[in-house]
Structures are given as C-alpha cells and as structure tokens.
Specification:
The protein is α+β, with helices and mostly antiparallel strands. The protein has seven helices and 21 strands.
C-alpha cells in the first residue's frame, strides 16, 4: 500500500467539504492500522475516512436512514451473522471481561446478543472508552477478523462505542456437547472427572459430559474463580471453545457457571481395551500429593511441590502409570486409587504401612504392585483423552480353557 497516495486521496475528499485534513496524521493512522493491527489496506482507508467524517461531522455517501448502514457506514448485524473480514456494527451486552494478554490491549472480553457471542479486543492505541461488564453497548465500525479459526471483534481507532441505557434480557441456550465448535458456546453438563493440574497457573482441569459426549475443561487461577464439584451438574454459558490437534476443550474463565440440582446421563468417549500390561512406569505405586487446596500435585521424594515448595503434611495416594499392549497397539494408561486397589489387592492403608516400615519404603510398594500386574492380561475400561486411557475399571482377564484348546487344535492342524 502506498500510504502517501492513500493519505492524499482522503485529504482531497475532506478539502472539497471545506475541511482541510492533515495528510501526515492520516498517513500515520493508516500505517498503524495496517502494520500494527493487520487491517487490510482498503479497510484501513475506509476506517480513517469514517473516523474523520465523524470528527468533522461530514456525512458519507450511502450512509443514513433507510440504507441498512450505521452512521459510520458499516452494516448493523446480529453477532451470529458476522463473518471474518467484515466491518460491522453490533449492539450487545458485555457478559465477561478478561485480563488483557498484552500491554497493547486495553480491554478484552465477550460481547453477546440474542443470536450468539463473540470475543472482542480493544487496542490500547484506540483510546476507546472502557466498557463495564453487564452493560449494553452499540459498537460501530468494528472489524471482525479470524484467529485460529475463531471470529473476533477488533475495536480500533475508527470504532465508536456508545452505552445503551436499556437493559435487554438475554436468555442463552445451551447446546449438546457433540455440537460444540470453536468460538463461544454453552452447555449443560456434568463434571465426570477431575485431573491433576499440569500447570502452576491452572486451578482445575477435567472432563465434562452430557448425553451426547464429553469434553475437556480448564479453569485458570483468577480472583473469584472456584473449582467445580465432581459429579455436579452445571449450566455453563459463554465459555471459550478452543481447538488443538483436532480436539475441543472449554476454557471456563469468563464463563457464567451455574450449578443446579439433579443428574444427567453421560455417554461418549468410552473405550475398552484388553491386553497385556507390558510396562509399569516410575511414579507408580504409592505417591505423595500436595495438601494445598486446589493443587493436588504429586510431590518429589523430598516432599517438594513445584508451586508450594516443601510440604511436610503431604497426603498419600495410589496410582499406576503404564502401557497396555492389545496386540495391535500400545496404549498409555493411568489407573487412579480405586482401580489400583481393585487390581492389586493392596489398599491405601496397607501401602502406607509398607512405605513407612519397610527399609525400601515407597520403592517396596512399587515393586510389589509391579510384580502383581506386570505381564498380566487385563481388560481396562475408561475414557481415552489425549492418547491416554483414564481407567475407571481394570479387571484381570480370566483363563478360558475352551479358547486354549481351540488354539492348540489349530496349531496341531497347521503342522
């Protein structure tokens, strides 16, 4: 884009209206929109033209009553109707605000109307008025772009924001888990599992499910954020639906989360594999967990938590990490306490007794459990998430004499 030539064109338009415009300032605005914010050159030129038209109170051709356009020359739409690459005017409610991810961002959050919701970002250089969570606004000349396949609303220097005094009712409708797609969505779902936090900033992660399927969720540590209750049923509105490696997940920071009474059946994501336990990984057996509320991380042998440091008042737990080979594929599996106790016959109290009184301590528990399960044929049932089977039940495969006889007969016939 030739910024000087574009600035000259814009300047001439307003000179004809008796409004001399500073070409240097115009050129600077164009460069900022294109080079810093990634706006298309033609849209940047239109944005600067609209901004000056408002400043000088000069009407633009084609704008005004009966044209289907806002005063800035952009089409007013419902949020669900907008597509990336469009300049739009929305009227919506700020249903959530989030901490800006960069100093270049003044404000970010979620804007919703009766048709849907969209994430918005207000650039710091736009000097836009700050919006308040729970209030309605008319946003004119915003730019809808796309990031990782998800539509976003960008508020820049040419955008006008006006608060709407009336409070309109919004009744979001949850959709089945199986129908979620990247963007903003809502579900009515049950907390099926809680997983060990994999990052120090993570408050909770786990699995949500309904009658149609399951989906991973995560809550990051922020003031006022609370963990969900395992087994609880929740209405969740305006959650961010992310996609990574073809799998969807729900980010609940900024979402409206309401717990309700009752229960719902959960299906989908169930997997069952029968095979030999060919490897029991280090870190299996009896382990120590951080007792700090919301942490639950496995501690080192020195009782060290990577977030909360030394924890002398640790909590014991059981788990087995390993590989299950079904003859065609090797599956990574994780058994929690209930499944470990049922498979090994060693409960937590017995494991703790061994760990505290045997010279080998926790290593002795690992060795005893490994000897009981390694090489054994088992049937594991659970949910396969991120290429790991989170085992709910794991039962030894019983010897079937009839099958053995058939194999021997087949071998004899082959010879």
């Amino acid at each position: 884009m030739d910024f000087s030539e574009a600035a000259e064109r814009i300047s001439r338009k307003f000179s004809k209206e008796g409004q001399p415009a500073d070409k240097t300032k115009i050129e600077g605005k164009l460069k900022r929109l294109v080079q810093e914010f990634g706006v298309q050159p033609s849209e940047a030129e239109r944005s600067v033209t609209n901004e000056l038209a408002k400043e000088y109170n000069v009407p633009l051709p084609g704008a005004g009553p009966g044209t289907g356009k806002s005063s800035g020359g952009t089409e007013e739409k419902k949020i669900a109707e907008a597509s990336p690459g469009e300049w739009v005017t929305f009227e919506g409610k700020v249903v959530a605000l989030s901490a800006p991810a960069s100093p270049a961002i003044a404000q970010s959050g979620i804007l919703a109307d009766e048709s849907g919701a969209i994430r918005f970002v207000a650039w710091a250089k736009a000097n836009a008025p700050a919006m308040t969570e729970g209030s309605w606004y008319r946003i004119e000349s915003g730019v809808v772009d796309e990031y990782k396949g998800v539509a976003n609303l960008k508020i820049h220097s040419g955008t006008t924001i006006k608060e709407i005094s009336e409070d309109r009712t919004l009744i979001p409708t949850p959709i089945p888990v199986a129908d979620l797609h990247p963007g903003i969505g809502g579900v009515r779902a049950k907390v099926v599992q809680e997983w060990e936090a994999s990052h120090e900033r993570m408050l909770q992660s786990g699995l949500l499910g309904d009658e149609t399927g399951t989906i991973k969720f995560v809550i990051w540590k922020e003031p006022g954020r609370e963990k969900l209750e395992v087994g609880g049923v929740y209405n969740i509105f305006y959650a961010q639906v992310d996609e990574f490696n073809g799998r969807l997940s729900l980010n609940l920071n900024g979402a409206t989360v309401l717990q309700e009474e009752g229960d719902i059946p959960v299906s989908g994501g169930e997997a069952e594999f029968t095979g030999a336990l060919v490897h029991v990984a280090p870190g299996s057996g009896i382990i120590k967990r951080c007792p700090v509320e919301g942490c639950n991380r496995a501690l080192s042998r020195q009782n060290y938590c990577p977030v909360h440091e030394i924890q002398p008042k640790f909590v014991y737990d059981l788990r087995i990490k390993g590989w299950l080979d079904d003859g065609e594929k090797t599956h990574s599996i994780l058994l929690q306490r209930d499944a470990v106790e049922a498979l090994t016959g060693i409960d937590l109290a017995a494991a703790q007794e061994i760990a505290e009184n045997n010279p080998l301590g926790m290593d002795e528990v690992f060795l005893q459990m490994r000897d009981k399960v390694l090489g054994r044929y088992v049937t594991c049932k659970g949910r396969e998430i991120d290429n790991r089977l989170l085992v709910n039940t794991c039962e030894p495969k019983k010897f079937e004499s009839a099958e053995h006889t058939n194999l021997l007969n087949r071998a004899g016939g082959a010879s």
